[in-house]
Amino acid sequence: MAGTLGIFGICLLFAWVHMSSGTTVNIPDKVYKIARGDKAVIPCVFTPSKSITSVTWTADPDVKDDPEINVAGYFTPTNKVTVYQKYKGRANVVVDMVKGTANLELLSTTNADTRDYECKVQDPEDELGLLSDKASLVVLVAPSPPICNIVGKTEYFENIQLTCRSEEGTPTPSYKWESYNVNNVLRPLPLKATDQNGALSLVNISMDTSGYYICTSTNEIKSAKCNVTLRVNPPSMNMASTAGIIGGVVGMAVLVGIIICCCCYCRRRREKAEEYPMETPEDEEFTDKDPEGREDDRDIHVNSEEERRLKSADRRDPPDDRSERSYDRRSDYNDRRDHYTDRRDDRSDRTERNDRDDRHDRERYDDRRDRYDDRRDHYDDRRDRYDDRRDRYSDRYDSRDRPPSVPPNKPKEPRN
């Protein structure tokens, strides 16, 4: 038993001596962080050996089961660095075979460069050494300026949320809210407020909740801020509802005004129709012809007397007829009013036709009055001519009764 343990110990010692004399590869840190856009350097240290043929860098694939991605490599005996297609112009390997270093450099880093990288040393004469090592590169992205919003009604006794979110940031930013009063003095958050993942919940808000709220988005690189002004209003100050109420009241007032105007217009139309009934005279003819030729005074006088009698008779007869016609018109108007009541939907057309009828009746009435005036003027002219003739005849009769005038040159009769 003791012999067996002695042999096993000798084997371990031999292995340790062999490994300590073999090639080893080491990356000092397991994680390297760099800001996006900056230059990243991942160091690789190995045991110098003249038997090393190459030092290469590879990167993990985007998909787990895909083959690894070649980044760059150093090869002997040409002692040249080769950069592969995907990283050409952006990657380089700085190799010092005497010191045993092969540092990977990546320029203009992006989010896609965040992955694991492996440094490999190939030494054909070393079969037991650690010939590779891995490290992770994390490309950090500063938080973008966050966007602050208010979710909910900013009225008394309501519950609202203040939200804060950065569109980008690696690693994921953390958020913190601070509150300032209207005098821009820092104050604690309300007692029941909760700040979780960029959402600040405010419960049962009041005037004291009003103020300025600032959100800070932070990760390992830098921070960014946004602010929002909270103004808590009484429910009566809700401008949208107030505007709706005012609009409704104004609309109702306009509708009532239109109805009143329509009623007043219809009433005036009714009163006007009852006050000024018009009837078109039937079988009535007027003429303005002057008498032809001359007649003697007796015929003229007789005709004048007949005309006066006819006019006097005409003035006595029409009242009964007019009263009957007025009664008929009033009955007809009542029938039309009932008809209008049954056909209110057609009121506008009928109103327009009635206006035209009224204007037509009024024009006919004016024409009749003008003709009456013309006839009156004509009779006055005739009367004046009759009076002139009568005066001339009277002068002629008077001249017959007077003795003849004595010529001034007649000789005087001798006296006895």
TrEMBL record:
Which InterPro entries does the entry link to? A33 (IPR042474), Ig-like_dom (IPR007110), Ig-like_dom_sf (IPR036179), Ig-like_fold (IPR013783), Ig_sub (IPR003599), Ig_sub2 (IPR003598), Ig_V-set (IPR013106)
Q: Which Gene3D superfamilies match?
A: Immunoglobulins (2.60.40.10), transmembrane domain of human cd4 (1.20.5.900)
Record keywords, A-Z: Membrane, Signal, Transmembrane, Transmembrane helix
Note the superkingdom of the native organism.
Eukaryota
Which stretches does the entry tag as region Disordered? 274-416
Transmembrane annotation, as ranges: 243-266
CC annotations in GO: plasma membrane
**UniProt biased composition (Basic and acidic residues):** 288-403
Chain ranges of the Ig-like domain: 22-138, 145-229
Enumerate composition-biased segments (Acidic residues).
276-287
Per the UniProt entry, the signal peptide is 1-22
What is the designated name of this protein?
Answer: Glycoprotein A33
Q: Which organism is it from?
A: Cyprinus carpio carpio
Its gene is GPA33
